[in-house]
Amino acid sequence: MKTKVVKLWVHWNGNVRLTLRDGEEVHLTRSGPTDEGYYSEERSYFYDAKAKLVECITDLSGSDCDGPWSKRFVEECLVFGESLPANPEWRTTRRDSHDFFAEQMGY
Hints:
Shape: elongated
Strand content: over 45%
Radius of gyration: 16 Å
Distance between the termini: 51 Å
């Protein structure tokens, strides 16, 4: 029998407990100034009961003294039961990074 709801703890301005239903997606966002520009982070959590996994997509972007940049991490964690352990084992399935000015210069 597949679990229709999963609970997990995430660190987001402190520890936060998320409850995800099958097929549900939750978005967390934060941003602000840094000493060299700005910083923005968005995390999306999605639960797929049939596949027995939670997917986390983290999008980071900002600007510093070298110009704009962005990073994306896609991770997944297998679900066994109704909640993930306090320190679940996330597997990175994709990682992208862009430094826009460096790419324009051919680096």
